[in-house]
């Protein structure tokens, strides 16, 4: 990513280094939350709710499923590019 010309206003996320810091900060935060799962007692209704990292993995799988389902739905629901120009 190149630096914007000096005459334009520069924002803090325009710099590649800052974007990398945000990305790795979020990765570290997610890893810390995943590891924190080992330090409290879980009282689930079902046995699989008490597995280590169950909710993190469930959330990840659900998010991937939603993205893949949306890609399929787009093919079904999408209208033509000139739909309103007819």
Explained architecture:
This protein has 86 residues and is mainly alpha-helical. The protein folds into two domains: 1-40, no CATH class; 43-86. The protein has two helices and no strands. It has helices at 16-36, 54-77. The chain is flat. The two termini are 40 Å apart. The model has no long low-confidence stretch (mean pLDDT 88).
Overall outline:
flat
- Give the N-terminus to C-terminus distance in angstroms: 40 Å
Number of strands: 0
Helix-strand pattern = HH
Oligomer: single chain
Total separate domains: 2
Alpha carbon gyration radius: 21 Å
Helical content stands at: 40-55%
Mean pLDDT: 88
Give the gist of this structure.
The chain is 52% helix and 0% strand.
């Amino acid at each position: 990513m190149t630096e914007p010309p000096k005459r334009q206003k520069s924002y803090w996320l325009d710099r590649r280094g800052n974007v990398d810091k945000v990305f790795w900060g979020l990765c570290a935060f997610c890893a810390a939350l995943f590891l924190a799962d080992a330090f409290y007692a879980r009282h689930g209704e079902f046995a699989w709710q008490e597995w280590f990292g169950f909710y993190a993995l469930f959330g990840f799988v659900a998010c991937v499923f939603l993205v893949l389902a949306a890609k399929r739905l787009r093919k079904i629901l999408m209208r033509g590019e000139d739909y309103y120009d007819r």
